[in-house]
Amino acid sequence: MKQAPFRLTAGLVVLLLAGCATQEMRPAVAAKAEENTTGPATATAIPETRYPDVELTPALLYQLLSADIAGQRGQIGYAMEVYLQAAGETRDPRLAERATRIALFARDISAATQAARLWVRADPSNGDARQALVSLLLGQQQYNEAENHLEHLVALSPESGERTFLKIATMLAGSADPETALALMGNLSAFQANDPDALYGYAYLALQLKQLDLALSTVERVIIQRPEADRPLIMRARILQQQGREEMALESLETVIENEEASIPLRLAYGQMLMEAGQVAKAERLFEQLEQAQPENPDVLLAQGLLAMERLEYKPAEDYFQRLLKLGQNVDQARFYLGRLAELQSNAGKAIDWYASITGGRLMVDAQVRQAVVTAQQGNLPAARQHLQLLSRKFPTQADRFQLAEGEILINAGRYEEAMSHYDNALHSRPDDTNLLYARALVAENLGRLDIAEQDLQRVITLEPSNAEALNALGYTLADRTRRLEEALRYISRAMRLKPNNAFILDSMGWVHYRLGNYDKAEKYLREAMELRKDPEIAAHLGEVLWAKGDREGARQVWQHTLKMNQGNKVLLEVMQRFQE
């Protein structure tokens, strides 16, 4: 996919030819501030930008026109240099802004930083200018200078306090130095004054940096000040969940949900966590009540669609997502999950069409990744990898996601040696990335390299002791591929304490008891797992246990019933062939 050339508009030239700044051409941030003053204002009004009185000499006009033409011809370096020079000479914030944006497009961080500094000096009341400069400074670890601008950014923001601090936290979360990032946020005067919005932003930053104890203690301070607010309560539950205290997380929301006045967002968050905990029946009842109360609520419809997908009920799920499209609400989410439904039903062309229809917003990158995965499934692996590598260059801050996705498509194609090499290379620069370690462990297990699989999973568990998925994966691998069954049982038991209603962990527990010869216990756990999730591999395991117990007809019924819903499933077909020869 060839990147489109950067195209300059003639807007600045026309603006300068007009001789003065018009109301329509002022920066959007200033216009927003003015809008806020027409009604009851909660945000600080931002002073109108004052532009310098610059004479439009023939030389300046020639500079701008030549830069504009160069930009249209793809000569980005020349256009950037000209606008940067003109901004320095005129101190016009519009030229500085243009120079900043061109330099960012050209990925010339030094020039972008120089231009952003000019932009801030020329228009100190412009929040966009400050945000651009802070982002650039953080990326270069120039923390002292960045700190000087953060307080200004808070004062200039026309948004609510919570959104402002979340925006700052998001910028700081990408820092290479988590301790410094937290210090910068903690040094803000609003945080020092115990402002609940600043505290919430700090808790969010700590959560993003996986400082879970700090995040929890901070959000508790917010809840004390604002016990009725939804978002801090939801954040507290999510932190507890990530700490492995799933039951406590659910109880923390259930206590609030018992109040009939509990909000829809709180109930939805509780329902989502019930689904993640494997308590699907309880989630179903909650979402049905919400749909009866608010049948056109887009968040409720989205949740119902996701729940239907979880149950592999594709037609009802599609109906919910189509209703969202008709409402014009949660449109990108609806398109994304319609793409996933098409994938699950092996309709690659339809899936790609849905993903391609998402052209902006936070799901755009996810949709692009799924397009690559589907392209690989169609057999065009080189195009899929090239697409992911292009995304990695275009969105460098998310390069780790694209590396994981590239490994995934290699695994799906059965190219395990290439996937292993791919993950090896990625881990050179990020040796403690738990997602990469986990992914490589799964590849190593497929290659029979149990030493690497165990080593990587042990490392994940050392870094994240509450990682139930890693504990379960290690326990299952030991149970399935070795005779270290008691050790396997200990790991799976630890995983189950963290997530007692997870179908895959229950499956592992059933499998290790089968390998230990405890057939009744094995059947009990596997039936519980099947109640939660009609997964082909769980069905394969349950049938094998029933066969070992002498219930061959029961085994055939489990396999055949599951195969009807998962036609052509290789795991089921292999186990049926093995036992019915």
UniProtKB/TrEMBL annotation:
User: What UniProt keywords are attached to this protein's entry?
Assistant: Repeat, Signal, TPR repeat
Going by the entry's taxonomy, the superkingdom of the source organism is recorded as: Bacteria
Per-repeat ranges for TPR: 400-433, 434-467, 503-536
First and last residue of the signal peptide: 1-23
Keyword hit for Signal: yes
Q: Which Pfam families match?
A: TPR_12, TPR_16, TPR_19, TPR_4
Gene3D superfamilies noted in UniProt: Tetratricopeptide repeat domain (1.25.40.10)
GO molecular function annotations of the record: identical protein binding
Q: What is this protein called?
A: Tetratricopeptide repeat protein
